[in-house]
Amino acid sequence: TYNYVATAVGYQQATGQVVVGTTNVNMGDIIVNEMAYPPHSVVAQEAANFSNVTITWQPPNPNAQTITEGFEGATFPPTDWSQIITNTGAAGTSGVLPTWCQVGTIALTPAVPPHGGSYQAAMWWDYAHQDEWLITPQFTCPGNAVLQFWSYVYLGSTNGDHYYIKVSTNNGSTWNILWDASTLTGGWNYYATPITVDLNAYAGQQIKLAWQADDPPSNDGMWYVWFLDDVVIGSPSKVITFSPEQLFAASQAPTAAPKMVYPTSPICREMMNNTETQHNATVKSLPPTATIPTYNGNRVLVGYQVWRLLQGQETNESAWSLLTNTPITSLTYADNNWASLPDGTYKWAVKSVYTGGAYSVAALSNPLPLYHEIGTIAGLVRNMQNQPISGATVTCGDVTATTNASGAYSMSVLSGTHSVTASHPNYQSVTQTGIIVVTGQTTTVNFQL
Fold this sequence. Notes:
- It is elongated and about 100 Å long.
- With 449 residues, the protein is an all-beta fold.
- The chain has one helix and 34 strands.
- The strands form eight sheets. Strands 5, 7, 8, 11, 14, 15 and 17 form a seven-stranded antiparallel beta sheet that branches. Strands 6, 9, 10, 12, 13 and 16 form a six-stranded antiparallel beta sheet that branches.
- The N and C termini lie far apart (86 Å).
- It has one helix at 270-273, and strands at residues 2-6, 14-18, 40-46, 53-58, 67-69, 82-84, 101-103, 120-123, 131-135, 139-140, 146-155, 162-168, 176-180, 187-190, 195-198, 206-214, 226-233, 259-261, 281-283, 301-310, 321-322, 332-335, 344-354, 358-359, 363-364, 368-370, 374-382, 393-396, 399-402, 408-414, 416-424, 427-437, 442-444, 447-448.
- A hairpin with a 3-residue loop joins strand 23 (344-354) and strand 24.
């Protein structure tokens, strides 16, 4: 049984399985669908008077569906990346810090060059507490995307330390585990094979990715070194770097033949205490060759449709509220129902609509919290003889209340300055203006009709 992948520039991948027996197999036609590229850079911004939210986005870019980082920039972390540094110790004889840092060839025996280019990201084990993070910028995850990176990492640590890949859909407030080298087996991967993590569950969402080295609960440091290089997010056939000064589209060339290395330096704690035989390793180091892919598909962009959703509903499209019944051609939309929504944290989803009724995956906006600041207006409605009026209607904007037998009423309204009107069919209406309502407090407004 074989897994197959059919790819063509400008089309989505087609995957499947074929079983080959003792006779030739005719697989027939393999259908690949034209790409319906999503919009990107969706931004939701609340109006200064809190009355609406404006959603803006950028049109689809077929040449920007894949993102790479090779740590070749002049600064570390790279542009728009970030770090969480717990261990501030000095570098050892290898020149690698006990937190994520940019290094060239690492002084092991033999030396470990970057997988590609002149630099790699690396961190060294220590006996002091380590909880070290290297975090990407927030970006819109492409459809059918994978994370692929090359790593010098130990698979299968049993010492309680973890070598995580994590994802956040809320700009780093919380993180979910995608991959952990300690849950795998196989021992050392000396840049021998790439690590691949499926991101398809996050297609169209705004996400961040993180590489986290987390020591055991005893807080006595990591047990193994961890090196990282040539990160690719999306389709490996097209490349665009995170760093704006290095933007280019490219098709990857085949890598060079592997170079065998046999490390003997102390890359893990056990090596400080014994002389066990080390595993062989493979290091590949040929950067991609830049060539520009072309796309000659005949699918035409018709416009965009916009949805509103509560944060947490990103994967449940049936719970989304459609705001545009037909596709719009503008790159902006104003959600004028914002102020009337229930409290919660909201996002907006935008899809590209193409001829033939094809929709892209959704590109999601940043979250916006909506918490109404509420106060109370309460009082009595009486007639000119100071007797209570039952059944009078008191109105403040679109909020109303009805008086009881004692002429009393109470209503919850947004904080601010309001006009309040009391009315009854048998009496003349009265309006009071300039009524100030403070969050969490009760403002008394009495009427005589």
